[in-house]
Hints:
about 0% strand; about 75% helix; mainly alpha; Growth Hormone, Chain: A; two-stranded antiparallel ribbon
Amino acid sequence: MRDEGTVTNGRPATRPVGKFAAVPAETTRTPNRALLVVILGLITAIGPLSLDMYLPALPDIARDLEVSPAQVQLSLTSCLIGMALGQLIFGPLSDRWGRRRPVVWGLAAYALFSFLIALAPTAPVLTGLRLLQGLAGGAGVVVARAVVRDVAAGNQAAKLFSSLTLIFGIAPIAAPSLGSAVLRFSSWHGVFVALGIVAVLLTVLAAVALPETLPPARRSTGGLGEVARTARELFTDRVFLGYALAQSCTFAALFAYISGSSFVLQDGYGLSPTVYSLLFGGNAIGLIVASQANGVLLDRWSLSRLMYLGLVVQVVAGALALLGAATGSLVVLATGLFLLVAAIGVIQPNSTALALDRYPAHAGSAAALLGGVQSIVASVAAPLAGLGDPGQGVPMSVVIVGFAVAALLSVLVLARR
């Protein structure tokens, strides 16, 4: 077993885990860091764009399709399930085919399904197409993580993930505002047309500018048998699962907020779509600030210590949100939600680096399991947050607290060395 990645003479140190031989991150020539951060950040932004851009339109969709809010929230869940499946499929494929090809094909398919969603006549059709859209979008999410592990390890990988969050964090800020802007001139159908246009542009960007970071000599050639052996090794690695479950429960707490906040804040507290978008964007600023602070603090603190700090803050944030919802205090609720989102900027980069650093030779498969478990666990959050009357946010806040506590316990129980 091995501890966190360290840096020796400026080079990331790697040590084998189980039967997998470690592959130095610098086997290939590292591409321009700034360009790589921009490209990967934009590709990864497909995730929050898919989930956040149509949040202001959820009440309109429910009224237009004549269904309950819970039925509309199922489209969020189906998109997350699709992303989980997409990551589980495209992650191992990227170990076999290289990183660029799965990203380009995945983004192109995402654009197609986005345009089809704009034509969805019923809620079941909307939900089904969102599943396919998420599956295609999973390619970019999982490959971006694998690319980072191809070119960096340990603290350096965590810093690179923190840099990605600078761009990744802009998406939640811009997405609801973009959605609200589209709704001023179009219906909710126009939101998905806009998503399709964004995906087309990203497809061109990936095809032209994304470097290939996995050379043929390092690609997997073992077929389905090797994929099964790799999956078995990952599932039986207690420490890896601890990080994976912690990250998954963290994202589930965030997703409870994403799926429930539009109904709670607009219907329960009377905020307009514009004010809601501004509040949502302000929370995302906390994510950006925390992620950049994480990159600086990594020069003094360890990956594990910073991850524990983020997990504790998330539990406190959930408690504050529940207190605010129970007392009807928008200020206390908003404070808790702000801290909840900010904590993600510390938890996600460090937990991802710690998990992927254990399997440098199978970064795509490890990233697939990490993202797949995250999406599956988070998909449970939307239906739970939608149970009962959203009111002033008690159901949503209870789900947030539950998953935040589960995230902390996952690391304390499974990932302790």
